[in-house]
Amino acid sequence: MSSDSKMKKSVIPSDRRRIIEAEASWIASMLLFFATVYVTVKMDILWVVFGIAAISLYILPIVSMRNPFRALPWEMALLLAAPLLLHISEGSRTLMEEIGWWNDLTSIAFAFSLTTIGFMLTVELQMYTRVRMNRPFAILFVVLFTLGISGFWHIGQWVDQKLYGVELLTSNGAAMMGLFWTLVGGVFMGFAYDAYIRTMPKGRRERLGFIYLWEVTGRKKRT
After folding, report:
1. How far apart are CA 142 and CA 154, in angstroms?
2. What are phi and psi of 185, to 5 degrees?
3. Could you tell me the pTM of the whole model?
4. 124 Cβ contact list (under 8 Å, min separation 6)
5. Residue 222's pLDDT band (boundaries 50, 70, 90)?
6. Are 32 and 40 in contact (CB under 8 A)?
7. I need a surface site. Which of 1, 119, 121, 156 has the fewest CB within 10 A?
8. In the chain, which ranges are continuous DSSP H helix?
């Protein structure tokens, strides 16, 4: 067997895998897009902001690199779409009334999505700016970002409740429980993404742009 045929056999599965992963990511992103369109039509302002932010971070590498294969991994795109899908689910209100832990499930899914946005933000800051973070600081940044946005989210829910009379925060305990699950989800996903990057094959990491997660080992000594 010639060397050219061996090279073709090794290249084809890699290209096919890349195409399949990109297609899965595009499908997941379409779920995110149509869910965002739905909440926009419903004028659900908080979720509109969330959806637009998620979509913007998703398409930024594709547009800037002019490469459709720089799409976010499909598993991360699904995490972004999950809370929106739970929110607009037709049976969500019934489930929240009948199942006590349904609201906690939604809070955890929301925390996972916020953590994913924070992770994407750390990647893209290092792709397009001179910001550099080591892994411990990146994990801390993602967790604090998740908690910070969750706090603003609850303030937005309170404002909506006062302006439009929609009962979004049933009690102070419910708000605190939402923040608690956000903290749990943020910490868990912060370490999960650290392990995720460590175990990701180098070729996939370079293709997705995650190679920009620099390891900052220390400052250079001045001479």
Report:
1. 18
2. -65, -40
3. 0.72
4. 57, 60, 61
5. very low
6. no
7. 1
8. 3-41, 45-65, 74-88, 92-98, 102-128, 135-164, 172-199, 202-208
Tokens linked to 185: 């989800």
User: How many angstroms separate the CA atoms of 204 and 188, rounded?
Assistant: 23
* Residue that is written with structure tokens 């409740």 in the block: 161
Q: How far is CA 154 from CA 90, 148, 149, 161, 213, in A?
A: 23, 10, 9, 10, 31
Residues near 160 by beta carbon (within 8 Å), at least 6 away in sequence: 45, 46, 166, 168
Give the whole-angstrom CA distance, residue 124 versus residue 118. Answer: 10
Rounded to the nearest integer, the mean pLDDT of the chain is 75
Question: Are the beta carbons of 24 and 74 closer than 8 angstroms?
Answer: yes
Distances 30 to 39, 59, 189 between C-alpha atoms, Å? 14, 12, 23
Angle, helices 45-65 vs 74-88, to 10°: value is: 160
CA R_g for the chain: 20
Angle, to 10 degrees, between the axis of helix 172-199 and the axis of helix 135-164?
150
The separation between the first and the last C-alpha atoms of the chain, rounded to the nearest angstrom, is 56
Q: Which two tokens stand for residue 137?
A: 């600081």
What is the number of residues in the chain? 223
Residue owning tokens 């997705």: 208
